[in-house]
Amino acid sequence: MPLQPLTARAVVILVLVFAAFGAQQTAVKAVVDDMAPLTQTFLRSLGGTALLALWFLHQRRNPFRAPAGPSMALGLLFALDFGFLYVGLALTSAAHAAVIYYSAPMMIALGAMYLIRDEPIRRFKVLGILFAFLGVGLTAFSGAGGGGTATLAGDLLCFVGAVCWAATVMVIRATDLRDLDAPVVLFHQLFGSVPLLGLATLVPEGGWTVHWSPALIASLAFQTVGVAFLGYLVFFAMLRRHYTSQVSAMNFLAPLFGVVFAVVLLGENQNGLFWLGAAAIVGGLCMVNQRRAGHPA
Predict the structure, then answer these.
(1) Which residues of 233-267 are buried (b: 16+ CB within 10 A; e: fewer)?
(2) CB neighbours of 55 closer than 8 A, spacing ≥ 6?
(3) Which string of b and e fits 15-45 if b means at least 16 CB within 10 Å?
(4) pLDDT tens column, 2-19
(5) What confidence score (pLDDT) does residue 7 get?
(6) Do 291 and 245 form a contact (C-beta atoms < 8 A)?
(7) Dist. CA 86–CA 107, nearest whole Å
(8) Which residues pair with residue 145 across a beta bridge?
(9) How much is the pLDDT for 83?
(10) Does residue 116 or residue 153 have the better pLDDT?
(11) What is the pLDDT of residue 274?
């Protein structure tokens, strides 16, 4: 099926998807006292794996037909990615986590130009990447007030999670995994991360001390069904139907929604330095996703 420009319906769907992606940090942070973050991400991966397995069963497809080595690397990187992000969320504000974590597309663009070399080097993109990393620095040192506290350690962990996200994409683009359907690749990320994240919950700080509450159940359901399953499947479906550049250009919505949800639902107040850093990251993301006329995909 030939790629099509985004329609009004597709734009609305993508706004909802990126709103879900941005809200995930707030969902984790809101119940971090009820369940340890590592336990949350373990149950998220376990539930997402089960739902995807049922989806493949319904489709009568075998998701295990993939190169073993790269697939194992995906599982490891996915576990590290969300392990660092979720632990970082316990130490920093949801707004900081959302903004810093979504610096990953900058690193992906940098790796595509200088490591994988499957994209041409463009000065405008490089400038956008540098601009965004300046924003990360400003955000990390801005502090936080109101209902949220931010620490440099927590921000750093979220940034390491973003690095693992970027490394995951590099593995996919540099190996035979690039020829597989995106849902299959997602399945291997989730499936491979389950045993690693399960082991991580056994450490003293990981813990299985749980205070079950309606908020915790709602948060886990949202993280698992809304993001790890439906969110990613819909996002990949949009990528298969519409121009990649047009879909990717809306990435900036995720950190923006992340900040909005953190402020509205958690009462996190941010200072001027944070907003300046957030604006730099969003501006850099827009510059990275910019395409010249005549190059829509």
Answers:
(1) bebbebeeebbeebbbbbbbbbbbbbbbbbbeebe
(2) 183, 229, 233
(3) ebbbbbbbbbbbbbbbbbebbbbbbbbbbbb
(4) 778 888 898 899 999 999
(5) 87
(6) yes
(7) 20
(8) 269
(9) 94
(10) 153
(11) 82
